[in-house]
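RETRY 2/3 - previous attempt timed out on the joint model. Re-submitting the same 1200-residue input unchanged.
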Amino acid sequence: MSMRTSYCGLVTEQQLSQTVKLCGWVQRRRDHGGVIFIDLRDREGLVQVVCDPDRPDMFKAAENVRNEFCVQITGLVRARPAGTENTNLTSGKIEVLCHELVVLNASVTPPFQLDDENLSETTRLTHRVLDLRRPQMQYNLRLRYKVAMEVRKYLDSAGFIDIETPMLTKSTPEGARDYLVPSRVNAGMFFALPQSPQLFKQLLMVSGFDRYYQITKCFRDEDLRADRQPEFTQIDCETSFLSEQEIRDLFENMIRHVFKEAIDVSLEAQFPVMQHIDAMRLYGSDKPDLRVKLEFTELTDVMRDVDFKVFSTPATTEGGRVAALRVPGGGELSRGDIDGYTEFVKIYGAKGLAWIKVNEVAKGRDGLQSPIVKNLHDASIAAVLERTGAKDGDIIFFAADKAKVVNDALGALRLKIGHSTFGKSHGLFEAGWRPLWVVDFPMFEYDEDDARWVACHHPFTSPKDEHIDYLETDPGKCMAKAYDMVLNGWEIGGGSVRIFQEAVQSKVFRALNLGEEEARAKFGFLLDALQYGAPPHGGIAFGLDRIITMMAGADSIRDVIAFPKTQRAQDLLTQAPSPVDERQLRELHIRLRQPEVPKA
Amino acid sequence: MSMRTSYCGLVTEQQLSQTVKLCGWVQRRRDHGGVIFIDLRDREGLVQVVCDPDRPDMFKAAENVRNEFCVQITGLVRARPAGTENTNLTSGKIEVLCHELVVLNASVTPPFQLDDENLSETTRLTHRVLDLRRPQMQYNLRLRYKVAMEVRKYLDSAGFIDIETPMLTKSTPEGARDYLVPSRVNAGMFFALPQSPQLFKQLLMVSGFDRYYQITKCFRDEDLRADRQPEFTQIDCETSFLSEQEIRDLFENMIRHVFKEAIDVSLEAQFPVMQHIDAMRLYGSDKPDLRVKLEFTELTDVMRDVDFKVFSTPATTEGGRVAALRVPGGGELSRGDIDGYTEFVKIYGAKGLAWIKVNEVAKGRDGLQSPIVKNLHDASIAAVLERTGAKDGDIIFFAADKAKVVNDALGALRLKIGHSTFGKSHGLFEAGWRPLWVVDFPMFEYDEDDARWVACHHPFTSPKDEHIDYLETDPGKCMAKAYDMVLNGWEIGGGSVRIFQEAVQSKVFRALNLGEEEARAKFGFLLDALQYGAPPHGGIAFGLDRIITMMAGADSIRDVIAFPKTQRAQDLLTQAPSPVDERQLRELHIRLRQPEVPKA
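RETRY 2/3 succeeded.
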């Protein structure tokens, strides 16, 4: 005898006049005209249960149930009285006349109402078990499952094999900080939790598995921002014998498939491909949000000889940039709005925010309203108006500084205006899904602090074939076979064609100032593997948490993870991390630095 | 232009007279009659490539290739000359006449031949990348993938949802030793890697997800045996509102499905169900290998009053046992064989191994040959012969000691004889797949060292409803709603119906001598969750590594894991664990206990 015959949320008029057994939670109990109505909930939704007083035992039981009691009911499916149907529910045309009600497990009063939309995150994470009962959280995690399963289906039919790589790996302190795991058996030694399975998946290609994937946890011990977690999930993929174009096509198709199957969204048939240099030029970002209909205008060349040091100094300095952002209709922005934006760009290092309101283009200089226009000669003004394509009623913002500051500040301003109420009401934002590829990244960027080149992606990314000589002569000019998939301003995936020749890998290590001995100590196993006929290979990794967050329209990746950590890397539900026994530390050959062990 | 048109191993007579492009590794190069033959290998198998000297450039390239070179060839598919077909290969009816040969990546000479079957494990794990190129390892890992995927398909269609649970969890030192992860942000605190997602999956049931699964890594820092790894993979499942019987049926079906789909084995339609007490009685083991056609005979009651202390003392002592193992045809075992078995059972604590050879049953005492028969009175001899069903030519072994020693020693002897050449040639071993359920485990076993009851499964297992009172009065009598799935002597899965009522959970904690404060500190989040209408729930976890090891007929679980650890918990390929920088330790607020940091 089963405890139930159906999910609550799936009882429909198909079962009219049948006796059903249901198990679920009391969402709400109403007493109405001597009758008790119970909204009974399970993962599939709600059903209305009606308890009549003509069965006194059952009615007495029904009188005692409270919200979140777990109950089992047996009853007859009947049509709801005309006019009381609920079209929002699958079960909305029927109700269940209760014959028997068994309290499977009572509930103390929950600390909050499940439908309260204004709970603090601390409350939600502390009482995560109840928080997860909310329909939105149920939806989010089921969506997450559906996406993962669709990814598996797609990759399976494309010949990919899921191969598990180790969680207890070697610490190679490049990039982010490792989580370390002390070894008991090997005193004084440590494992690291993987930041990604990068090297293992490359080794699997050298082993000839040809197509690999894994949906797996990765770990980075970084200070957490809104969209980061200490442990996060990657869709990690690698292939052999494919060109960059073929790899991108394969995974573009995967994302298209998943969006269609999981949320019925048809992404465009061919994602735009943008060179990294163009993304920086037009949007100041390597992950531009193409929903925002605003672009930068390059003005560095125009401002070299103006009599205005704020512009001419960056314009004539190596690594400087002057750029503009024309905002159609921005003439109506108030002085207060502009002051707000000026403060905003300072977050990104800008010293100020010059602007020109374009009242009448036809009047040239006289048609402009601006604190800076007096400092600009006619040729530069003409160039600004022409290049930006200014129209009456626009505002043009300017940034002039080191290129990084200009890109960050003006890029952030672009997004802020685009996403603002003003932007949305002026056609500067177009809702929808705007994927693109950003390609042709530089191999290296110069780390001023360490005075050395560091890898933009990671040190295993292949340089462009025609740029291999730059590795030794001019690393800054060397471009990589690297590509990011960007969606609505988020990097959702990143990958590259990898180095498959030991000689090239060694050159890259040298360019990164990694001595031969150090390279061997850290990556000897990779260099060895590359010597045994490693195949050309490349791949990509997608951030599953981010993709689901976007699909679900959630505020935070914490809303698409069952048991996330807080921004202080704590699990408020189980109270992890926590102090441990001295005996445990002794077995691991470590001790705390503090004189005192914190109390539990 | 793609680098290849087909996998090497999949070229067949379907492509006769077509030009193909193939990429792969040189398995072997033979020079024969002025022509070069290359066996080209990829993950799908081998194809024969023929290089004629009439294309000098290509031929020169072919002359230079060596084993494990990664090459691309372009050529014409033609039939092999009659009589040279290879029926072991999918591509065995054809060969590819090479037009062009490109060395994609050369290989230094591998440290061993890929087809060498006698490599040490150290060699294989050190050069794992090459070891994984071997067809057997390719098969094992692809089988592993197929099994995991079939598990997913089955569970998906049964309404299960894969939900990821945390890897950075709370240390609750019950059971095995935790792997710890020091927290940087929370000084002096530690995460633990999960020994299983047990509590999280129960919390997900309380949250109403109804059916959960996850194929996930678990971690135990134990001293390693042949079939253990520090990190291992579980198929972890949990359901709500199902009875023990329904849960077992669901997962029995899953295993049946997976064996059929992955290796085309039809397991029996209904697995036998054996009570734990019967498994111990008949096989001395809670994971009996039913392929061995030998059973214990209980003799404790018969031996109470014999004038032979070796038997009568255990027979009259609380917790003692006397049992026999009849071996049909064992009369032909030599004195040397018997001495060998006597040594063998000493490993398990037995002090000796009594035996009786049954020459002629009809003659009673006079038909027996034995060093002990003189010590046994007629009634006991009659009982031995009758209960064991002895026949002429048998041998009967005896064990008499504490029950645990009898069970371990005689159980091990049963397996040893069953799997021996003697056993196999005498019908004592029947090859095949013999699954069963072992059920009705005791809740607790008494830990003599700690002088307290410990949980046989884990402290969240539900007692039988009718045994709840025993929790307070007589824990030793309390049976659990626990079940193991056993296959050919291996426990491949274990689970239970869980406690879903806070009051019962608290009683179990008390029976385990876990004080209220300690219980709250460790498991407060569970006790809290159970108060909010937790549903009846239960589940199971299967050991994926073991299942694949059995399916693949591998010697060790290390043969079904891409990058396993050695028995000293080391990764010989990447050299993990390894020493780390002092800076990293400082950030984690720990220091080594040794005065010296080991050198890298």
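The domain at 8-105 of chain B is CATH 2.40.50.140 (OB fold (Dihydrolipoamide Acetyltransferase, E2P)). Closing ticket.
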